[in-house]
Amino acid sequence: QVQLQQSGPGLVKPSQTLSLTCAISGDSVSSNSAAWNWIRQSPSRGLEWLGRTYYRSKWFNEYGVSVKSRISIKPDTSKNQFSLQLNSVTPEDTAVYYCASLTGDISYWGQGTLVTVSS
Amino acid sequence: QSVLTQPPSASGTPGQRVTISCSGSSSNIGRNAVHWYQQLPGTAPKVLICSNNQRPSGVPDRFSGSKSGTSASLAISGLQSEDEADYYCAVWDDSLKGWVFGGGTKLTVL
Question: What is the average per-residue pLDDT within A84-95?
Answer without folding.
Answer: 98
